[in-house]
Amino acid sequence: MSKIVVEKSPPLKGTVRVSGAKNSALPILAASLLGTEDIVLEDVPNLKDVDVFCEVLSLLGAKVNRYDGGKIVINSANIDKYENPYELMSKMRASFLVMGPLLARLKHAKTSMPGGCAIGTRPIDLHLKGFKALGADIDVEHGYVGASAEKLVGDRIYLDFPSVGATENIMMAAALAEGETVLDNAAMEPEIVDLANFLSKMGADIKGAGTSSIRIRGVEKLGGAVHSVIPDRIEAGTYMVASAITGGDIIIENVIPSHIKPAIAKLRETGCEIWENGDKIRVIGNKQLKPIDIKTLPYPGFPTDLQAQFMALMTVTEGTSVIIETVFENRFMHVDELKRMGANIKIDGRSAIVQGVETLASAPVKATDLRAGAALILAGLVADGNTVIDNIYHIDRGYDGIEKKLATLGAKISRIE
Ligand code: UD1
Questions:
Q1: Angle between the 164-175 and 99-106 helix axes, to the nearest 10 degrees?
Q2: Does 3-18+231-416 match 22-228 in CATH topology?
Q3: What top-level class would CATH report for the domain 22-228?
Q4: Where are the beta strands (DSSP E) in 194-244?
Q5: Which atom of ligand 1 is nearest to the CA of 163?
């Protein structure tokens, strides 16, 4: 099993390019099942999750061709299977996103129930509420959830929580439903807007994506599209913290600064200097950073997917910082690993109180989930000695070449088999 080894590193310097967003690429791959003509995707990140998603699409009968440089061409004209099996679903929860498109295209969809995962139980009730409102019958048995509908008909749907996945799944199903669907309290993440833009290029009629009320007028058929995936705001935020924690000075390219406002604001609060220039931002760390408080929230609030990385920064920031995690009920798995490196963190329910220490010390640690893994890499950059990180398949699920990108900035990081 591969591991990542991180040595205490000098302040990072140089330029790094952010890849296409994982959380845009996955729903867009799912949406490609809705079209009957060629779909050309560009800037798709090279990730394990994308590999698995392409496997799911092929299994359902789509033709998938991948090219170097992040290009994928998909043709779903002849999809004929509607079951996403346990083996693939268990590798990646996000493959539940094929439900909406399959239901709309083939009148049936079946996928293994997503189980619990490291960051909480993550139910699917809101996805199912949406499908039911559109007229689908839902049945759950033998660990599988099935949805079927002779015809989907638009309706007004209120989400009790602005779930990203439920918004995407319902938007995709509604794109081919009869009549109008209005989705209220919808998620407003940039990835929702990217998906809506992609669906519109395929011929869908969607208004309001990026606001809390999305209106979808169903069309009879969706065609092809050429689409470039938006930059990954979480990857960008991770490199921003890497610069901050090492007292570095780096330029991050292929960024949409308005997508990462909370990360920019919070790093400025710590005392980092941040310059925005078009699709580039420069992040200059400062030796004497100040503690900050963070509360994770749905977009445009502070993203839960950057919580662990910011916690790594707080562990070495003098003073007391507080994190309140409101999006997931159990997203502090990285705390025990950071504590093994000497961090001083106390958990009280959904709050973490982080008392900055002067130095962290390396220890063998394991990535408990994707962003937790990134947090350990960041901590390793400033910990004395060699930090050896295990279970890095989590990191490979969502970061395109993280150790290579950090190494070009001067980080002492390598992968060992
Ligand atoms: C997506 C992202 C993930 C990110 C999360 C929140 C992808 C592939 N993944 O995950 O990286 O951390 O958004 O920004 O885009 N919930 C329910 N019922 C449901 C669905 C969700 O109660 O039917 C709850 C979840 O348990 C969780 C909260 O809603 O507490 C947020 O989940 P959701 O927004 O759905 O996250 P995902 O789409 O799974």
A1: 10
A2: yes
A3: alpha beta
A4: 205-207, 213-217, 225-228
A5: 34
Q: Closest Cα partner for 189 from 306, 352, 282?
A: 306
Cα–ligand 1 centroid distance for 10 (angstroms): 36
Indicate the pTM of the whole model. Answer: 0.97
For 390-412, what is each residue's pLDDT tens digit? Answer: 999 999 999 999 999 999 999 99
- The closest residue, in CA terms, to atom 1 on ligand 1 is 164
Q: Which two structure tokens, joined as six digits, stand for 212? A: 């809390």
Beta strands in 18-60 (DSSP E): 39-42
Ligand 1 centroid – CA 215 distance (Å): 21
Name the β-bridge partners of 277: 280
What residue spans define the domains of the chain? 3-18+231-416, 22-228
Q: Is 117 a catalytic residue?
A: yes
Task: Tell me how crowded residue 88 is: count the other CB atoms within 10 A of its CB.
Answer: 17
Query: Among residues of the chain, what percentage have pLDDT more than 90?
Result: 91
Q: Which residues line ligand 1 (CB under 6 A)?
A: 23, 26, 94, 120, 122-127, 161, 163-166, 304-305, 327-328
User: Which atom of ligand 1 lies nearest, measured to the CA of 303?
Assistant: 14
Active-site residue identified among 15, 87, 90, 117: 117
CATH code at 3-18+231-416: 3.65.10.10
Q: pLDDT category, 182, cuts 50, 70, 90? A: very high
Q: How far is the CA of 116 from the centre of ligand 1 (A)?
A: 12
Sign for the CA dihedral angle at 261, 263, 267, 273 comes to negative
* Structure tokens given for 159: 């989400």
The token pair at 56 is 């799911």
